[in-house]
UniProtKB/TrEMBL annotation:
Lumazine-binding repeats lie at residues 1-96, 97-193. It comes from the Bacteria. Pfam families: Lum_binding. Signal peptide: none annotated. It comes from Streptomyces odorifer. InterPro entries: ATP_synth_asu-like_sf (IPR023366), Lumazine-bd (IPR001783), Lumazine-bd_dom (IPR026017), Riboflavin_synthase-like_b-brl (IPR017938). CDD domains: Riboflavin_synthase_like. This is Riboflavin synthase.
Length: 207
């Protein structure tokens, strides 16, 4: 489990095509400190498993499903990426509960800079719209953010200077894809309410 607080702005140094998968090598001395084979590291919000590592970089295998359903398929050597290690049990929950399981890919459509912050608009896939609410949480490229406005096909977020300087969101341009993970609590609530409603409906029909 992650919290959406990016620890490091890393870089893709190599991408190896494995046919039905790809092997990425990523530079990130902060997240590789103390890393072991099999550990998890979130890369742009996608939970990946460490295959190998040295003092400042690690490799991770990415299967075709992940390449297709996230923006990782667009990465190339030189691409910058947000990196985060899982939060320790009992540690601070600085952002919100993030699984590292991407729900969909949006597109950054507009940036509106101001003196001390920037308003960013991101397109929202139709099947995710019901999970996004004003002042709720959403993860964008692994960054825990608060929704400013929630529309049917888009949402907006405000980025402070720290986020602009220390994450990929400071460099993304209109047209660039971003990984989206909605608040998992909303999905669980929806499923539980659906199960509760089903027996009630059946009971009414049998009267």
């Amino acid at each position: 489990m992650f919290t959406g607080i990016v620890e490091e702005l890393g870089e893709v140094t190599a991408v190896e095509d494995l046919g039905d998968a790809a092997r990425f090598r990523l530079r990130g001395p902060v997240v590789t400190e103390g890393a072991r084979h099999g550990d998890s590291i979130a890369v742009n919000g996608v939970c990946l498993t460490v295959v190998d590592h040295d003092s400042d970089s690690f490799t991770a295998d990415v299967m075709a499903e992940t390449l297709t359903r996230s923006s990782l398929g667009a990465l190339a050597p030189g691409s910058r990426v947000n990196l985060e290690r899982p939060t320790a049990v009992g540690g601070r929950l600085g952002g919100h509960l993030v699984q590292g399981h991407v729900d969909g890919v949006g597109t950054l459509t507009a940036r509106e800079p101001s003196a001390h912050w920037e308003l960013v608009t991101v397109s929202l896939p139709a099947h995710l719209a019901r999970y996004v609410v004003e002042k709720g949480s959403i993860t964008v490229d692994g960054v825990s953010l608060t929704v400013v406005e929630a529309g049917e096909d888009h949402f907006t977020i405000s980025l402070i200077p720290t986020t602009l300087a220390l994450t990929t969101l400071g460099h993304k341009q209109p047209g660039d894809p971003v990984n989206l993970e909605v608040d998992v609590i909303a999905k669980y609530v929806e499923r539980m309410l659906g199960h509760r409603a089903a027996p009630a409906a059946t009971g009414e029909e049998s009267r």
